[in-house]
Design a protein that fits this description.
The complex is a heterodimer of chains A (129) and B (379). Chain A has 129 residues and is of the alpha+beta class. The longest helix of chain A has 21 residues. The radius of gyration of chain A is 14 Å and the shape is globular. The relative contact order of chain A is 0.22. Chain B has 379 residues and is α/β, with parallel strands linked by helices. Chain B folds into 2 domains: 143 residues, Alpha-Beta Complex (Aspartate Aminotransferase, domain 1), CATH 3.90.1150.10; 227 residues, Aspartate Aminotransferase, domain 2, CATH 3.40.640.10. Chain B is built from 13 helices and 12 strands. In chain B, strands 2-8-7-6-5-3-4 form a 7-stranded mixed sheet, with helices on both faces. Chain B has a 3-stranded antiparallel sheet with strand order 9-10-12. In chain B, strands 1-11 form a two-stranded parallel ribbon. In chain B, helix 4 links the parallel strand 3 and strand 4. In chain B, helix 2 runs parallel beside helix 8 and helix 9 packs parallel to helix 13. Chain B is globular and about 70 Å long. The two termini of chain B are 42 Å apart. The chains are: A alpha+beta (129), B alpha/beta (379).
């Protein structure tokens, strides 16, 4: 294999993304969702959560963006599954980046967007409660 | 081991066997400093002058109009240096080595807009500038600019004209006399020569001032010990292009493969669109966009399958801004972010095209499935 631009973990998540929501999102029953970013900026992420008794029982996501954006949402979905909403909110950009074995400096914003998409979903859930 | 499919020739093209041979022979000969008066120096001087003639012949220039530089970027920067403090106009889709070097050196740098195909409209060429710089063909789209017409328009206002022919040389006929340009840039590694050597053509009598000073080399027009190995490699590449009618090979062998690939992508991949014009385009470049799929991800999924393409231009890698070229032609950031450039070369075969069409539709489908952007049928 030739050397790759990102870490092996980013590559793994990018090539085999976990928990992404395939196709039509209206067919996936969920309790809340959050979206950040904009295709015009080159990245958009959407997180879908199922919540029961304050705990995240299932996570799905959709992402338009580069390899590190896809890997960030994939890693985040694994990190927060089974956590309480408060615990999940503590998973910040730093935790996502660490879990991925680091991101290039100009791609750190992908981990920030991931965290913000999750935070938006949780905020939407709390507002609707 | 995955079979590698290289489709990024516009970024750099592998060295021709004849180029390697010529450079190895030069390495073994162990030439002296071309400025020295002794035998080893004279031998170096001789091979340099042979290479100069080969390059001049390829673009129909006079040998003393050829200045060897470290590459296309240096040649473009040299033109900007000549017009330091003057008024210039450049097309919106120029390479950054034209755009940025002109911006920092010129008193005023106007930007000439382009149409959807990336083409400059003659009516938009300003009359009150000292220099107009428009590339012969776009590195990202392949669009060929109407340089001869632009020159005629410029001559009416006594404006000098530079064209960056880096992508065009070897692919289509480039004749400096027929074009009528005052300055022209070319680079060796886009025509099967080595990286690190290029040429600035300066028409006899055109204003000049060196970018690199402190030596009498290149008739005091570019200081620094002559890069004999690079120059020999460039000479060999130019000779190969001339002897083998490279433009004919590109027209007859490469273009049909590119056209076939475009046709199959547009027919077989939903929500695909072509950014390169169908006519008036280099024979080897194809720039395409796929709705809801981001360019870097497409590129890296293809790379994982051994297919090498680029997003916009290689210089854009590491840059998160959308391509300034696609922004100028489409004004649509989403199309710009969702594009890849496939560029073919002399070694490209039908097999390579088949391989792309085996892999690309699945890659696009996967990214579209994953994407936040909804496709029309889901609205």
């Amino acid at each position: 294999m030739q050397p790759w631009v990102y870490s092996e973990t980013v590559k793994e998540h990018f090539l085999n993304p976990r928990n992404f929501l395939m196709g039509d999102e209206t067919k996936y029953p969920h309790d809340t969702e959050g979206v950040v970013g904009n295709p015009i900026c080159g990245d958009q992420m959407k997180m879908f959560l199922c919540v029961q008794d304050g705990k995240i029982t299932d996570v799905k996501w959709k992402t338009y963006g580069c390899a590190s954006a896809i890997a960030s949402t994939s890693a985040l979905s694994e990190l927060v599954k089974g956590k309480t909403l408060d615990e999940a909110l503590k998973v910040g950009p730093r935790e996502i980046t660490d879990c991925l074995g680091g991101l290039p400096k100009h791609k750190i914003h992908c981990s920030v967007l991931g965290h913000e998409a999750l935070a938006a979903a949780i905020e939407n859930y709390r507002k609707s409660e | 081991m995955i079979q590698q499919t290289y489709l990024d020739y516009a970024a750099t093209s592998p060295m021709l066997p004849e180029v390697k041979q010529a450079m190895l022979a030069a390495m073994k000969a162990g030439y002296g400093n071309a400025s020295a008066l002794h035998g080893a120096g004279n031998a170096a001087k001789r091979v340099i002058e042979e290479a100069r003639q080969a390059v001049a012949r390829l673009i129909n220039a006079e040998p003393d109009e050829i200045i060897f530089t470290s590459g296309g970027s240096e040649a473009n920067n040299t033109v900007a240096e000549i017009f330091r403090g003057k008024k210039v106009a450049v097309s919106a889709i120029e390479h950054p080595s034209v755009l940025e070097s002109m911006r920092v050196r010129a008193k005023e740098c106007k930007v000439i807009p382009v149409d959807q195909a990336g083409r400059v409209n003659l009516a938009n060429i300003p009359a009150d500038v000292d220099l107009v710089s428009v590339m012969l063909a776009s590195n990202e789209l392949g669009t060929i600019e109407p340089i001869a017409e632009i020159v005629r328009c410029c001559k009416k206002h006594n404006t000098l004209i530079h064209t960056d022919a880096t992508q065009a040389v070897g692919k289509i006929k480039v004749d400096v006399k027929a074009l009528g340009v005052d300055y022209l840039t070319l680079s060796a590694h886009k025509i099967g020569g080595p990286i690190g050597i290029g040429v600035l053509y300066v028409k006899n009598g055109a204003p000049y001032c060196p970018l690199i000073v402190g030596g009498h080399q290149e008739q005091k027009r570019r200081a620094g010990t002559s890069n004999v190995l690079g120059i020999v490699g460039l000479g060999a590449a130019a000779t190969w292009c001339w002897d083998n009618w490279s433009c004919k090979i590109f027209a007859e062998k490469v273009r049909p493969l590119r056209d076939k690939l475009r046709e199959r992508i547009l027919r077989e991949i939903p929500y695909s669109s072509c950014n390169s014009p169908e006519e008036g385009c280099l024979p080897n470049i194809l720039n395409v966009s796929f709705r809801a799929a981001e360019g870097e991800s497409i590129q890296l999924y293809l790379d994982a399958e051994g297919i090498m393409v680029s997003t916009g231009s290689a210089c854009a890698a590491g840059d998160i801004k959308p391509s300034h070229v696609l922004m100028a032609t489409t004004g649509d950031a989403e199309i710009a972010h969702s594009s890849i450039r496939i560029s073919l070369g002399l070694d490209t075969t039908q097999k390579d095209i088949d391989k792309v069409m085996e892999v690309l539709p699945g890659v696009i489908k996967k990214l579209q499935d994953m994407s936040t952007i909804k496709l029309n049928n889901e609205l």
